[in-house]
Amino acid sequence: MNQTLETMLQHKSDRSYTSQPVGEAQLDLIVRAAYQGPTSINSQQVSLVVVRDPARRARLAEIAGGQPWVAQAPVFICVVVDLHKTAQGLKSRGVEQQTHLSVEGLVAGVLDAGIALGNLMTAAHSLGLGVVPIGGIRRDPLAVAELLKLPKLCFPVNGVCIGHVDKPALAKPRLAISTFRHDEAYSSAGLDAAIAAYDAELMAFWQAQGRANGQPWSESVAGAYKQVYYTQVKEAVIRQGFTLER
Amino acid sequence: MNQTLETMLQHKSDRSYTSQPVGEAQLDLIVRAAYQGPTSINSQQVSLVVVRDPARRARLAEIAGGQPWVAQAPVFICVVVDLHKTAQGLKSRGVEQQTHLSVEGLVAGVLDAGIALGNLMTAAHSLGLGVVPIGGIRRDPLAVAELLKLPKLCFPVNGVCIGHVDKPALAKPRLAISTFRHDEAYSSAGLDAAIAAYDAELMAFWQAQGRANGQPWSESVAGAYKQVYYTQVKEAVIRQGFTLER
Predict the structure, then answer these.
(1) Rounded Cα gap, residues B155 and B49, in angstroms
(2) What is the ipTM of this complex?
(3) Domain ranges across chain A
(4) Chain A hits for B4, Cβ within 8 Å
(5) CA torsion, ordered A135, A140, A146, A148, to nearest 10 deg
(6) Which residue of B lies nearest to A185 if distances are taken between CA atoms?
(7) Which of A75, A99, A115 is the mutation pick for testing B, counting most B CBs within 10 A?
(8) From B8, B13, B85, residue closest to A119, measured CB to CB
(9) What is the average per-residue pLDDT within A9-20?
């Protein structure tokens, strides 16, 4: 065990922040942790937009479906899949980029964005700051692209609030690790029982916290995934130039 | 600065491993670091397949286009976008899952997989082990799915080799951080100059290492991205049930 593992093993999302700013030196370290994350074929196909401006954060909170912590936390970092930079690299060689026309192009970019997002969160936690990832910006990615002046071939895939925690959250329990780790080959054995046990465990967790509207996992996931969760993503990725044609 | 930040700031990919095994206690900590990563709407839509079996690693090395380090490193972890578990959760409520029919469903899953992949790498580094992420399994995702017995709604998006490093690699320089961090809004100002400067810096890096076949960044990215990089991804995601229809 070490400090780094402890930091990741204690991950939780916080949604309550004080007004204390995040220092520029801390922010620089957090950004550098993401910058040093690996990317597919050394493409460096990720960018960050760091938002401190309160009006812009208020607008992002609104786009994200009314998430007050986006306006409250002093820093919001938008994580962008960026094939504009690579396209410019190709252009400098007189070559036209094709990979953004493919599902592979989007998948590779989103994966690299996920690595960067994870590093941002781990780095912030290691400095004693709180975080909450915000997928809600995918409710209206084109509005985010406009607000942050993203060029074509850039897609705002997620964001993260960073700040000093006011009322700390508790880490939620998870589905049994046997449903996460599979050795040599995937196995669904025990999945249904693990889901039932987790539903009960999560309800006990909500009750212990006095949270009356807490749902079992299967119910909350059903509420989200019985439809397409964010409906504008396909149109937005295509409009940004990721055509999914190939 | 702290140990966690140092670990991430020193990231590099190693492609040379000794035969020394990775202990089960270490592997357990590495897996748990990924397990504790956040997921969209607490969906827990990621799974890992841990591969130690040499024959299976040899097959994965082959699928990945002949990457000997996949066969050499004692552990390979395949990172899987897993909407099978959520679908089973919905089923337990008598509800049918829809989100996997959408681009959003794939994007959210791949992003969460990226967070898990980043955590695996940071955790392994913190224990003094080396890693190299393997996007090459997307050369033939259906072969990987068959080898690892993945059910429908599971997509093998990446993998990572973990082991004790034999001949350590050097971290490559990167494009200027000004092309990565944008404040308040995205800016392309200075991008072309940054690419030209980076091309020169990377060539100097290759020359200092005596690597005769090293290319400037724009040339290597052009070689990869002037076509669709992995051509079978679209068919494979659709065959696994992520139809991209909505």
Answers:
(1) 12
(2) 0.98
(3) 3-170+228-239, 177-208
(4) 3-4, 7, 122-123, 125-126
(5) -10
(6) B148
(7) A115
(8) B8
(9) 96
B136 and B143 in contact (C-beta within 8 Å)?
no
Q: Can you give the pLDDT at residue A189?
A: 95
The predicted-structure confidence for A39-70, as pLDDT tens digits, reads as follows 999 999 999 999 999 999 999 999 999 999 99
Closest by Cα among A154, A200, A150 to A46: A154
Place of tokens 């749902």: A215
Helix (H, G, I), strand (E, B) or coil at A56: helix
Looking at domain B3-170+229-239, which of 3.40.47.10, 3.40.50.2000, 3.40.109.10, 3.40.50.2300 is its CATH number? 3.40.109.10
Check CB contact of B243 with chain A, cutoff 8 Å: no
**What average pLDDT does chain B have?**
97
Which CATH number is A3-170+228-239's, of 3.40.109.10, 3.40.50.300, 3.40.50.970, 3.30.70.260?
A: 3.40.109.10
**Contact list, A185 vs chain B (CB under 8 Å):** 49, 147-149
Which B residues 202-231 touch A at CB under 8 Å? 217-222, 224-231
In this structure, are residues B114 and A114 in contact, taking their beta carbons and an 8 Å threshold? yes
Question: Average pLDDT in the A206-222 region?
Answer: 95
Question: B209 vs chain A: nearest CA distance in angstroms?
Answer: 18
Q: What percent of chain A has pLDDT over 90?
A: 100
